[in-house]
Design goal:
40% helix; Rossmann fold; alpha/beta; six-stranded parallel beta sheet; three-stranded parallel beta sheet; 10 helices
């Protein structure tokens, strides 16, 4: 039976670190603050922003939310980004996704001020990550590494197979693993004989958004399985991995819910504190 890699102890460890840092900042009259921008926000994104506000409140971090309808123009949105860039009270910006189709096609996140882009979506941050330099990185890939490090699971020299190539998870995560000297294989919807590749993984990460997509025939007995997927089936949250079947075979596995998801808002907070240091002389 696999070791269950629960996210709660990781989240609690990160919270203790974050609260100490926030307390130190407040002693210097620096009050970390996140600006959340949403356009035509759906129910899921609104719930996510509410959860961020709740967790950040617990951590002592302020949140300012601004939602706009789809009628906002690209020029108006650019102006909002410029105002946030020049607002010294806002240290980081989170642009909620998915965006309306027009704004996705325009890749509006490239207009965010890179020093406040705490999800690492601007071309500058993506480029820095590519070159192995310090950059902001999306919070979900960071959460994966935080979990592996917390449980002392080695990365260097391991074969990591990532199923999914999104800009917010698969692609940045592959670069993070490369920067930690792993050998990385990225799989996607056009990959042939997917199971042949996933069975070779020392660490298998699934981020495809398909419920129970990874089954016991796609893993080996020594695999560490990280499930990043979040899917709703019959009103219940499930991951990409068939948890009950796969946990009987592999070495370790994350649950959904209770795995990576609970860590992500904490890594977002860590990114915000990095942004504070970028903006303020401490």
């Amino acid at each position: 039976m696999a070791e269950i890699l629960k996210g709660k102890p990781v989240a609690e460890f990160l919270e203790s670190e974050i609260m100490k840092e926030v307390s130190n900042l407040k002693e210097k009259n620096i009050y970390p603050k996140l600006g959340i921008i949403g356009i035509n926000v759906n129910e899921e994104s609104r719930a996510y922003s509410d959860n961020i506000e709740k967790v950040f409140g617990k951590l002592g971090i302020k949140v300012e939310k601004k939602f706009y309808d789809e009628s906002i123009s690209l020029e108006e949105l650019k102006e909002i980004f410029i105002n946030l860039k020049n607002d010294d009270s806002i240290h980081g910006i989170l642009l909620l996704r998915p965006l309306p189709e027009y704004f996705e096609k325009q890749k509006v996140y490239k207009f965010l001020p890179s020093r406040k882009d705490i999800e690492g979506l601007t071309y500058e941050n993506c480029g820095r990550l590519f070159y192995g330099e310090k950059s902001f990185v999306p919070c979900t890939p960071l959460a994966v590494l935080e979990l592996l490090d917390f449980y002392n699971i080695p990365i260097e020299g391991k074969h990591v197979v990532i199923v999914g190539r999104s800009i917010s998870v698969g692609r940045p995560l592959s670069l993070l693993f490369l920067n930690r000297n792993a050998t990385v294989t990225i799989c996607h919807s056009k990959t042939k004989d997917l199971a042949l590749l996933t069975r070779q993984a020392d660490i298998l990460v699934s981020a495809v958004g398909k419920a129970n997509f990874i089954d016991e025939n796609m893993v080996n007995e020594n695999a560490i399985v990280i499930d990043v997927g979040t899917n709703i089936i019959d009103g219940k949250i499930v991951g990409d991995v068939n948890f009950e079947n796969v946990k009987k075979k592999v070495k370790a596995i994350t649950p959904v819910p209770g795995g990576i998801g609970i860590i992500t808002i904490r890594t977002l907070a860590k990114n915000l504190l990095r942004a504070v240091k970028n903006e303020v002389e401490i």
